[in-house]
Design goal:
14 helices; about 450 residues; mainly alpha; about 70% helix; four-stranded antiparallel sheet; globular
């Protein structure tokens, strides 16, 4: 939220985009890699026996009310007692509590658990199995949050500066090319590394459960890629700086905030809100539906495959429908996509639904970066890149992720996807109306200027 506009302003102010890019790349590498060394949280204490008045495994309630695994337990007494069960994983997004007699619990638990579930039950009069708080305020939480905050600051700044530099390189290239065509290479890297990380996690982890995953290969791969990215900055040709006379600096700042820019910024903000939900909870939702680590990696790979060709032809589409037309298509694609997630019952169906990712990210990101480059006054390209980037990945994704967390906890994943779908479609309608009004205003100003010129 802060890194993108501040990095863009620093780059434009001191005319040192490459130095800023290298510094922020190192910040990203050091602080994000340091997360690997945060000590794990102590696992919660769980009962270890189930006879008599001790813990019963959930399987007891799914085998015809049969407690014969426990010698000496009166089966009739077992069935007549009331119990309280805690269920984690499987088809529940957060620890869930089921209470009642044996037939009631059996019917309810059967709808909640699957092969990835963990659960245990106690006689209702003996102990509490209430879920732990939603957030564990441990020192690991605070340390991880601090490292990620600084690391993401570096990441956001580096991406903004990279986009601004990319446009200057493309503009001065002796070979005719576009930003979108070159951005395809980034998409290919994203796709291949996502698939690689998914395979490594599946290979080195004991199971798909979060506590059994080994993230060492992921952090090692990230470190290697970040070092290579840092080295690549020394092979890029520095753009010629644009000098802005001091008296014009304030005028340049004011010229950034036109009706066009504000309308496009609104669409970027909504796209960020939807992306906050998407990037924060799609993998979790797939896990709830029984998806594996490999599926999650394949999902990112397939998304990139959809995205790459759209990036390549984005310039042609922008010329045909304009920036506002591209943004409207983006918002509609999110509404359709999230509606598909709401209706989805098999986690593999996401590979078909995500064909609209080509528009929701591929076309959107290319149009956002092109818009900033075209609309920004001379010498303020990185600044406008930073403003739009902060609106999308800072304000938008931040608010979208936080709101999604509360909604997911209260209503579950399926209902949350439906809510975000309705929100995105409503925002698309609002954007379309705003686009029509902006076009009418533009025509009115043109006519007014023409009349004034005639009078003169």
């Amino acid at each position: 939220m802060v890194s993108k506009p501040s990095a863009g302003a620093l780059s434009d102010r001191f005319k040192a985009p490459f130095l800023c890019l290298r510094v922020f790349t190192v910040v990203q590498l050091v602080f994000m890699f340091a997360v690997y060394f945060v000590p794990p949280r102590d696992p919660p204490t769980k009962p270890t026996t189930f006879c008599g008045l001790n813990m019963f495994p959930c399987s007891v309630f799914l085998e015809g009310f049969n407690a014969t695994e426990c010698p000496g337990l009166d089966n009739n007494a077992f069935r007549d007692n009331n119990y309280t069960c805690r269920v984690e994983g499987g088809n529940v997004s957060a620890p869930d509590i089921v209470s009642g007699d044996v037939p009631t619990i059996s019917a309810n638990i059967g709808q909640l658990i699957n092969a990835n579930s963990t659960c245990w039950c106690l006689p209702a009069s003996e102990s509490s199995v209430n879920p732990s708080p939603l957030v564990q305020w441990t020192h690991q939480f605070w340390l991880t949050g601090l490292l990620l905050a600084v690391g993401w600051f570096g990441y956001g700044a580096a991406v903004t500066l990279n986009d601004a530099i990319a446009f200057s390189v493309v503009e001065s290239s002796p070979v005719k090319t576009t930003y979108g065509a070159n951005r395809v290479l980034g998409t290919m890297g994203w796709a291949s590394f996502a698939l690689l990380i998914g395979l490594l996690l599946q290979t080195f982890s004991d199971s798909a459960a979060a506590e059994d995953r080994d993230f060492t290969p992921a952090f090692a791969t990230f470190a290697v890629a970040a070092v290579l990215a840092f080295g690549a900055t020394f092979f890029l040709r520095a753009p010629k700086p644009v000098e802005i006379p001091p008296p014009l600096v304030k005028a340049v700042g004011r010229s950034l905030w036109t009706v066009d820019v504000m309308l496009f910024s609104f669409g970027t903000f909504v796209a960020g809100i939807n992306s906050g939900m998407l990037y924060g909870y799609l993998a979790w939702y797939q896990s709830e539906l029984g998806g594996s680590n490999i599926l999650i990696g394949v999902t990112v790979f397939v998304q990139a495959c959809y995205e790459a060709p759209m990036m390549a032809i984005s310039g042609w589409i922008i010329r045909k429908v304009g920036y506002h037309g591209c943004m409207l298509m983006c918002l509609l694609s999110f509404g359709i996509r999230f509606l598909g997630y709401y209706l989805m019952v098999n986690p593999w169906f996401v590979l078909l639904i995500d064909v609209v990712h080509s528009v929701g990210y591929g076309l959107f990101y290319a149009s956002m970066t092109n818009f900033a480059f075209e609309k920004a006054p001379a010498g303020a390209t990185a600044t406008l890149q930073g403003v739009l980037g902060a609106t999308y990945e800072g304000f938008g994704q931040g608010l979208g992720g936080i709101a999604a967390g509360f909604l997911y906890q209260a209503y579950g994943g399926r209902t949350t996807w439906l809510g975000y779908s309705i929100f995105s479609l409503a925002a698309a309608a609002f954007y379309a109306v705003g686009g029509v009004l902006a076009r009418m205003r533009e025509k009115y100003l043109v006519v007014k200027i023409d009349i004034e010129n005639v009078d003169l």
